[in-house]
Amino acid sequence: VMSVMAAFGVVYTLHPAPQPIHRSEAWLQDATPREVDGYRAEPGPNGEKQTYRMSEATYKIIDAFGIDSLIFTNGKHQIDVCVIASNNRESFHDPMHCFPGQDWTVLGRKTVPVNTTTRGSIPFSLMTARSPQGASALAAFTYKGPRGFVATQDKSYMQWSIDLFLTGQAREGAFYRFVGDETLTQEELLRFVSEFMDKISVTSKGVL
């Protein structure tokens, strides 16, 4: 074991950890697409880039580079999109716990592959939940860690822990959450998600 750790120490010395990256919410908003699959993101009430802003308490808890909260509409459907960018794994929470905290009832979750044109197949959690008003809706979410996409928080934490041990540096990642309205089908939601993931790779220059 000691010989392995010694060898690791040599490699680590030869390949020092990169300098930490710091980004802003303004960068995140510029890096997130505003038109996807025939949908357009609605501006904020005073013309802000994001449709709505999370509470200050949420910002303190998440402690991320930024949060971009958007409502996309095509005149028929609405999709609520949230993108979080951070170099701290604690910024990426689990909607399975967050939704009940907002009085939603989680009815089920499964992992599904979302096939994209430019990024291959991305694992997503697909969750069915009932709102406080009683309407059921579909939500999809995934985590982008330093070593790729995973569909659940526990896998995300494991990936970040391993990467931190190997590199000594907390690298950046992202969280993506999509909630359709009650009339949106699974096929329609995942088609939007697929195109969004392709587009954000372009608009963020490969970061997100």
Notes on the protein architecture:
The chain has 208 residues and is α+β, with helices and mostly antiparallel strands. Helix content is 32%, strand content 31%. It has helices spanning 2-14, 25-31, 56-62, 95-101, 153-167, 186-203; strands spanning 35-36, 39-41, 66-73, 78-86, 105-115, 121-130, 136-145, 148-150, 173-180. Strands 1, 2, 3, 4, 5, 6, 7, 8 and 9 form a nine-stranded antiparallel sheet that branches. A hairpin with a 4-residue loop joins strand 3 and strand 4. The protein is globular. Residues 1-15 have low confidence and may be disordered.
Judged by helices, strands and strand pairing, the structural class is alpha+beta
Largest sheet: 9 strands, antiparallel
Number of helices: 6
- Rg of Cα set: 18 Å
The amount of helix comes to 25-40%
Properties at a glance:
alpha+beta; 31% strand; globular; disordered N terminus
List the helices and strands and how they pair.
Elements: H1 2-14, H2 25-31, E1 35-36, E2 39-41, H3 56-62, E3 66-73, E4 78-86, H4 95-101, E5 105-115, E6 121-130, E7 136-145, E8 148-150, H5 153-167, E9 173-180, H6 186-203
Antiparallel strand pairs: 1-2, 2-3, 3-4, 4-9, 5-6, 6-7, 7-8, 7-9
What would a concise description of this structure say?
The protein is built from six helices and nine strands; from the N terminus they run ααββαββαββββαβα.
